[in-house]
Amino acid sequence: MWVKWFRFSPPQILVLGFAAIILVGALLLMLPISSTTGESLPFVDALFTATSATCVTGLIVVDTGTYYSTFGQVVIMLLIQTGGLGFMTVATLFSLVFKRRISLKDRLLLQEAMNQNTMEGIVRLIRKVLIYSLVIESSAALIYTIRWSFDMPFGRALYFGIFHGVSMFNNAGFDLFGHYQSLTRYVGDPIVNLVTMFLIVSGGLGFIVLSDLVDFRKHRKLSLHSKVVLTMTASLILVGALVIYVFEFTNPGTFSSLSWGEKIWASFFQSVSPRTAGANTVDLGSLRQATQFFMVILMFIGASPSSTGGGIKTTTFMILIGAVISMIRGRSDLVLFRYRLTQDRIFKAVTLTMLSLFLVIAVSMVLSTTESASFLSILFETTSAFGTVGLTVGLTGKLTVIGKFIISFTMFAGRLGPLTMAYALGPKKGKELYRHPEGKIIIG
C-alpha cells in the first residue's frame, strides 16, 4: 500500500490517521477561498468543523449553507466521505485502483478499522463497502436531484443531491439549506423523508449487515450479528417513534400545528435521526424535556458496528439487555437467537459502555463549568458529540473556545471509539502467566 507504518499499533495508526485528516481539513477550511466572504475562518472554528465532518457528526459553529463557498462545501463533503468510510478504506481504494499489494500490516489495520475479529476476507469486505457506498449514495443523489429540481435550478438541485446523499448515508447530518434549518421545510414531504431515513438506516446498519442482506437470496440465512442488528434497529425505531409521538403530540412548539400525516413523518424521522445522523425536521430546542432526554438515550446507543455511525452500538445494547434478562432468570449463559455468547463478548460490552458513560459524564461536568446553559442542553450536546450524531438544541453556536475544543475531542473519541482510544494510549500488556485465586464479594 502507498502508506508504510512503523512502530505503531493499529489503534495508534487509526488515531494518528484521523488526526492528520482533521488537521489538513482544518487548514483547508481556513483558506479565504473556503468562505463566501473571502475571510479566513478562525482556527478553532475550522478545527471544530473539520472534526465534525471527519467524525461524521454534523455539529457546526458556522452555517454550512451560507458561510462556506462551493470550495469549502466540497472540502467538507470529502472529509465526510473519508471519515465515514474510514481513511484506511480510502487508502485501500487507491491500492486496488493502482494494483498495489496489500500487506499483512495493512490488513491488520483494516481489521481494526472495520472492527472485525479476523483478517479473513477483509479486502473482499472493503470492496463491498466501496461498491455499496457508491450505489446507495448515487441512487439517493438521483432521487434528491429529481425532487429538488422542482424547488431550484437543476444544476443546484444536482449539487444538493450529491452533497446530501454523501452526508446522510455517512450519518453526518450536514446540510446546505442554510440558516441552521436542516430539513424542517420538508417535515411532511414523503420523498425527502423516505430517502433520508433510508440513507441514515442503511449507513447505520453497518456494511457487514448490508452484505448479508444482499447475499440473503443466495444463502437464505443471516448471521447472528445481522439478526441482532436488524432486530434492535427496528425495535429502537418503532419504540422511538411511538414515544416521540406521544410526548410531542400536544406540544405547541413542535407537533400541535402539524397534520396527522406530518406528525407521523416527524415522529419516525426524529426517531431515526439520533441513530446517528444529525438532521432534523422539527425544532429540537422546542421539544419537551422528556423527549430531549429520550433522544439522549437513543444517541448514546447509536448505530451498529462497522457502520458510519457512533454510540455504544446496537449490539452492545442488546448484549447488556440480554445479560440482565439472563441474570434475572438465573441463567449462567447469554443466549441470543439460539447462540451462546462467550464471556469476553459480555465483558467487552460492559467495558465499552462504562468507558462511554464515564466520558459523557466527565465532559458534561466540565462543560457545566465552562458554558452558560442548562444541564440537559449540555448533556444533549455532549451525547450528540460522543455518538457522532450532530443534533443540538442550540448550544453549539454559543460554545466558548474551551467548549469547542472539548466537544471536538468528544467527537474524535466517539468516532474512533473509547476502546480504540484506550488501546492507542495505554501501554502494551504481555500475556498473563498465572491466575489469582477466586474470591467472592456481595453484590446488591
What does this structure look like?
The chain is mostly helical and 444 residues long. The chain has one domain. It is 62% helix and 1% strand. It contains 19 helices and two strands. The chain has helices at residues 10-30, 43-54, 64-67, 70-85, 87-97, 104-113, 122-148, 154-169, 190-205, 207-214, 216-219, 224-248, 260-272, 289-301, 314-328, 343-370, 375-386, 401-416, 418-425; strands at 334-336, 339-341. The protein has a two-stranded antiparallel ribbon with strand order 1-2. Strand 1 and strand 2 form a beta hairpin. Helix 2 crosses helix 4 (70-85). It is globular and about 70 Å long. The relative contact order is 0.11.
Structural class: mainly alpha
Give the uncertain stretches in residue-range form.
Answer: 1-6
Q: Reading side by side through the largest sheet, how are the strands ordered?
A: 1-2
Distance linking N and C termini: 53 Å
Characterize the main sheet. Answer: 2 strands, antiparallel
Give the number of domains.
Answer: 1
Radius of gyration: 22 Å
Key structural traits:
two-stranded antiparallel ribbon, disordered N terminus, 62% helix, mainly alpha, 19 helices, 2 strands, single chain, 444 residues, membrane
